[in-house]
Design brief:
- The complex is a heterodimer.
- Chain A is of the alpha/beta class.
- Chain A has helices at residues 2-14, 50-61, 76-81, 96-101, 137-145, 155-163, 174-183, 209-224, 227-235; strands at residues 26-31, 34-35, 39-41, 47-48, 65-70, 87-88, 103-104, 113-118, 129-133, 148-152, 169-173, 188-195, 203-204.
- Chain A is built from 9 helices and 13 strands.
- In chain A, the strands form 3 sheets. Chain A has a 5-stranded mixed sheet with strand order 5-1-6-13-7. A 5-stranded mixed sheet of chain A has the order 10-9-11-8-12, sandwiched between helices.
- Chain B has helices at residues 13-20, 24-58, 63-78, 81-104, 133-165, 169-177, 182-212, 224-232, 248-278, and strands at 113-114, 117-118.
- In chain B, helix 4 crosses helix 5.
- The mean pLDDT of chain B is 88.
- The chains are: A alpha/beta, B mainly alpha.
Chain lengths: 241, 287
């Protein structure tokens, strides 16, 4: 028993020592991988989408080597602050509550209204049940409005809840819902829009000012030469700058 | 995978499925079955070793050792698994990093805790942040094995503790009268005979352990449930060559069959082990 604990501890302490030789700076990019078109896993199981292309370009401009990691949305902030990865690039809107715990770079997409998706145009979004993903600005907004909210851990579950009648509608980013409405005859977008959040930015640890500065500069350079707008249009994630 | 997979939208059903079921994402799904089996294969003996150690500690004559053993059993059995898996793993990881920090970076002056952030020097990070992704995955897997082993070890310790006390008193008296030392009695009389009493409890633990493997995802290991959810989720035409509606039901059915088949095989194996262990024992089963 003792030997086992000791040997595992020693193993853990020495693991990686052999790899300490190379010191190329690697930035680990944390994302959810379940929120198309922002970030999702493609048919090969690789992270893809708007934020994949954006992140790779930002890393190239900031001359950093980047590695992609997926993490559940629920625990995406705790794992950032405990150092399991270095950035959150997961369609995360900049809000005051989040800003107290982590820092954000400047926004890379402008604030965009959220929308409702339902099975019919006359869905009751004030008196009925509205689904949202846990820990999103939409869930927070619905709770403030006093609407009955059904929260789900993944975006997929919120759509399924509308389909099977558990919820009357789902509130989420317009860009996430639009493809579902376009490809499914039984789902429609409501006309009502809600303005939420301060745009989407990259989350970094509060103590990581250096990385934040590098990413800020890279985002600014993409804004200046128009490549950011091209990416936004390509993936239809929001309005352009 | 196959040469005809270049444009899936034109394929017949059978070919479409042949392509669909062999995408890179599906291969990751198939690999995750091996991850789960490997986890079980490594965790079960480790947990048994933890349990054996815990049981020996709990019945020790030295009070601090006995307190440690009993404390381990009582605390771990009392904490809900999910709390253990969420809290303990981060604490364990930070504990390792803190130890490495003390050893590797004695000159580091900045505090480790800055507000919400946990910051050790770069060379104390575990794994190093510039290590390739597979090292991170192996490390996550190692943490998972250790956590499962600690949790299930506590339950196994209690089972073995009870099994050791279930050996008939007469056996121990006979050993003493032969002049065996307590150590000899333990290894020659108690250990060989206790398994028959421990087996029902241990087989329960094994079954629970099989079914607890989806907790892996809480530990950041991408297990079969994660991939089933990910693959079964609606695939839209814009984002996938293989668009399909919500197929999670089918994927979860496949998992159900996997788990049922696995527990069924386990039951058969356990029955044989039980028959082997009871042979010649002075119990009803062993006549």
């Amino acid at each position: 028993m003792k030997l086992l604990i000791q040997s595992t501890a020693i193993l853990a302490l020495t693991a990686g020592a052999a790899l300490a030789g190379s010191h190329a700076e690697v930035v680990r990019m944390g994302t959810e991988g379940a929120y198309a078109p922002w970030n999702f896993l493609d048919d090969n199981g690789e992270v893809a989408g708007f934020e994949r292309e954006l992140g790779d370009e930002l890393c190239a401009r900031a001359e950093l080597t980047c590695e992609w990691v997926t993490n559940e949305w629920d625990s995406i902030i705790p794992n950032l602050v405990s150092g399991n990865y270095d950035t959150i690039i997961a369609g995360m809107s900049i809000t005051d509550e989040r800003d107290e715990v982590i820092d954000f770079t400047q926004a890379y997409t402008p604030p965009d209204p959220s929308a409702y998706l339902a099975t019919s145009m006359d869905a009751d979004i004030t008196g009925g049940v509205v689904a949202a993903q846990t820990g999103t600005i939409q869930a927070g907004y619905l709770a403030e409005q006093g609407v009955t909210v059904l929260e789900f851990a993944t975006p997929e579950d919120t759509i399924a809840a509308v389909r099977n009648g558990e919820a009357d509608a789902v509130l989420a980013d317009q860009s996430f819902l639009a493809p579902f409405a376009a490809e499914n005859a039984d789902l429609v977008m409501l006309e009502e829009l809600v303005s939420l959040g301060g745009g989407v930015g990259m989350g970094v640890r509060e103590s990581d000012g250096e990385l934040k500065a590098k990413m800020d500069a890279a985002i600014q350079s993409m804004k200046d030469d128009g490549t950011l707008n091209e990416l936004i249009t390509k993936w239809e994630v929001s309005s352009t700058w | 995978m196959f040469s005809f997979c270049t444009d899936p939208s034109t394929l017949e059903t059978a070919q479409w499925f042949a392509c669909y079921l062999t995408t890179g994402k599906h291969q990751l799904f198939y690999w995750s079955f091996l991850t789960v089996l490997a986890l079980l294969a490594i965790t079960a003996p480790t947990a048994l070793a933890f349990g054996f150690g815990g049981a020996i500690a709990a019945r020790s004559n030295i009070p601090p050792v006995a307190w440690f053993g009993k404390g381990y059993i009582a605390i771990v059995r009392g904490v809900p698994d999910i709390a253990f898996f969420l809290f303990f793993v981060i604490a364990l990881d930070q504990g390792f990093e803190w130890l490495r920090h003390q050893m590797l970076c004695p000159d580091w002056s900045e505090p480790i805790r800055q507000g919400n952030d946990f910051l050790v020097c770069p060379s104390a990070k575990l794994p190093l942040s510039n290590a390739p992704q597979w090292i991170h995955e192996v490390y996550g897997f190692f943490l998972a094995v250790l956590t499962f082993a600690i949790v299930f070890g506590a339950f196994a310790a209690n089972v073995l503790f009870g099994a050791m006390r279930a050996i008939p008193r007469g056996q121990l008296e006979a050993a003493e009268s032969y002049g065996m030392t307590p150590r000899q009695t333990f290894w020659r009389i108690i250990v060989p005979q206790m398994w028959v009493y421990a087996l029902p409890g241990l087989s329960n633990l094994w079954m629970v352990l099989i079914k607890a493997t989806p907790l892996l995802f809480l530990l950041g290991v991408e297990d079969i449930v994660y991939w089933a959810r990910e693959l079964g989720g609606t695939a839209l035409e814009r984002f996938s060559d293989y668009p399909h509606p919500d197929w999670r039901l089918w994927y979860f059915l496949a998992l159900l069959i996997f788990y049922l088949a696995f527990t069924r095989v386990s039951e058969a194996v356990l029955r044989r082990i039980n028959a082997r262990l009871t042979r010649g024992q002075a119990t009803i089963g062993g006549t």
